[in-house]
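Dear colleagues,

As part of the handover before I leave the project, I'm documenting each prediction I ran so the next person doesn't have to rerun anything. This entry is a single chain, and its sequence is reproduced below.
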Amino acid sequence: MKTTVVIPSYWGRSSKESFNPQDDLYDHPTPLDEVGTLERALQSFDILEGKDFNIVILGVATHQDFRVPCRERLKKIIGKFKNKYDITLFSYPELEAIKRELTDRGLDELSGLVSLKGYSNVRNACLIAATLSEAEVAVFFDDDELMKDPHYIKKALENLGKKQVGEEVLAVAGYYIRPEGETYLIPHPKDWLSATWNGPSAMNEAFQIIGQEPRLKPTTFVFGGNMVLHKRLFEKIAFDPHVPRGEDIDFLINAKMFGHTFFLDNELYIKHLPPEGRTPGWRGFRENIYRFVYTREKLLAQKPAEGTRPVKIEELDPYPGNFLKSDLQDKIFKASTLMALNYLSEGGKDGFRESLENIAIGTFKAKPDFDPFDWYFKYRKRWSKLIGFLSQEPSLKKIIQNA
């Protein structure tokens, strides 16, 4: 199966500049005055047995002012690996070329699906890049990770298309080995936030299946930097652009709604070495508020529709189900209040105000003013049309080849 490894790489303000609310929010974009992690990640591919894949780097800038320097930095890094791999760059010029082609063909309604703004759109761009590479399989990898298993690609592919519990395997989830050791379990913090927003506990409970047999089993979680998708799935299922973060798990839920199961492979692992983030705690938590409220509303809005099946919130326990139930607003209120008091105790007046604003967002503003299930159902149809067009248009394939 022809395979494309897609690696988004995020770049932003210099390390001397503070957080800027005008920037697109990503967990830890590389400052343009630093070396970054992408070269380290690509060097780790040297251990792989078999190089029968191509690599596409997705160049993403946190602000339009950084698009050109972001591209130039990435071209220099990629140039060091051209003699080892079939590797190329997908960034803003390639994106604009696709949009122009769609407009020229009278397909303006599809051009809005091609974007490098926000996690979900970037993940969709990864699928677009894989499609233009004529790949049957897209392997997702992030630039803050390391390959540690020489057989990773073999393991990623060997179960695709096979039957598991009566279902064809089209989506495989791997897992992360944490930076502090050889474990996949998250250290449990004993602080004020974990007392009300017990994310690590719920995630670790879900992670218990990693250490259990059989090797492949249905999962409620997936990591965006370690998942494997067959084209027969991603030509039908897209990431939802309304999800600001946690787009990987929302994608799993979308697939589940349309009758597809993600299977965890407990032998498919990578090492995760994320740099320290620069985003204020209140801002990151705000993205989680929008994420969980939106996904909950999409689940509650389900109705009979062609090709779908109802997904109950309880099917997603313990994670993310623990954050999609009726007590979600109560959790948001308690966590935001404690966060606000913590900021106040440290003299952080802005953090105090923004944390209180998170209460209002969780109560009033995060809930979409449209039917998210109906919206996604229609969006998915446009997505399938887009992938079909990109698959059949030879001139567009040159965009990836010539980047």
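The first strand starts at residue 3 and ends at 12. The chain has one domain: 3-277+373-402.

All the best with the project,
I.
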